[in-house]
Amino acid sequence: MTDKLHDRVVEFIARTRFPFAGQTTWPADYVTLTNVPMRQRGIAGTEGELFPDIVIVDGTGRVREIGEVEMTLGADVVRQLRAGSECADADTPTGVRHFFLYVPSGMERPAQKLLDDNAISYAGVRGFTVSAEGNVTIVPFVTTGDPYDHQVTG
Questions:
Q1: pTM of this prediction?
Q2: Domain range annotation of the chain
Q3: Which residues in the chain belong to E strands, given as ranges?
């Protein structure tokens, strides 16, 4: 899949899930930023600054939630996923970090295994599809944080 498709999925997720349409529990001072196609907000990583796909900050600038869209999975993405998780808050009903991983449909189970095998805290793993017409659909696979987040958008 191309970078253009990746960026389309990132923008769709940022626009439709952070917050969800009609969500009344989304804090008024939260701002959703994306780092595609231009970098807007970095986070500190063990080897320097990293730029997660989606970064939600509050009115003080504190990072609250992180979303990553990965088109492929492997050991090379673990560092980025771990940093995103560790930067996100753990203000969820279950105490997991507000970190969400989005992968192409069919890759959800390997994505969850990658997170679990590397002890990366996450609030959800989601699959996505893009139709021939370019319509994006997000389907939750597993939600370990707030059950409210277990919604299909598309």
A1: 0.96
A2: 3-149
A3: 31-34, 43-45, 48-50, 54-57, 63-69, 99-104, 124-130, 136-143
Residue 34: which residues within 8 A CB-CB, separation 6 or more?
10, 11, 14, 40, 53, 54, 55
Q: How many CA atoms lie within 13 A of 119 on its CB side?
A: 0
pLDDT tens digits, one per residue of 4-43: 999 999 999 999 999 999 999 999 999 999 999 999 999 9
Contact yes or no for 9/69 (Cβ under 8 A): yes
Residue 103 main-chain phi, psi, to 5 deg? -135, 160
Chain Cα centroid distance, residue 11: 11
CA-CA distance, 43 to 109, in Å (whole number)? 27
Report d(CA 45, CA 79) in Å as an integer.
8
Q: Is the bond preceding 19 in cis, omega lying within 30 degrees of 0?
A: yes
DSSP letter, residue 7: H
Report pLDDT digits (tens) over 58-95.
999 999 999 999 999 999 999 999 999 999 999 999 99
CATH 3.40.50 matches 3-149: no
